[in-house]
Amino acid sequence: MFVLSVDLRIKPESVESFIAKAIENAAGSRKEPGCRQFDVLVDPEDRTQAMLYEVYADEKAFDAHQQTAHFKKYIAEAVPLLASRRRHVWKRAAP
Q: For 11-90, where are the E strands, in sequence order?
C-alpha cells in the first residue's frame, strides 16, 4: 500500500476554482485500477486549507497515476491556484 497526504493552502481568491479542479482530478483518480481511495478534504473553519488523502495499491500504481491526463491537467491548472503544497508519504506501522 502507498499512502500520500498533500497539505494545501489555497489562494483565497481561488478557493472555489481550485476545489472544483481537485474534485475533478479525484474523480478521475478513483477510476484508476491501482487507486484505492482519493479524498479532497477542506477545513470547515478555513476553506483556504485543504488536504488530499490518496491510497494506492503500491508505489507503481502512484507512478502510473502521475502519468494520467487528469493528473497532468490538475498540475497545470490547479496547482498555480495554491499558495503552498506539501506532500507526505505514509507507511503502515505494522502489516
A: 35-42, 49-56, 82-90
Q: Is the pLDDT of residue 95 over 90?
A: no
CA atoms within 13 A on the CB side of 63: 3
Cβ count near 17 (within 10 Å): 14
Domain with residue 47: its CATH number is 3.30.70.100
- What percent of the chain clears pLDDT 90, i.e. is strictly above it? 95
pLDDT at 58 > cutoff 90: yes
Q: Where are the beta strands (DSSP E) in the chain?
A: 2-10, 35-42, 49-56, 82-90
- Residue 64 cell numbers, joined: 502510473
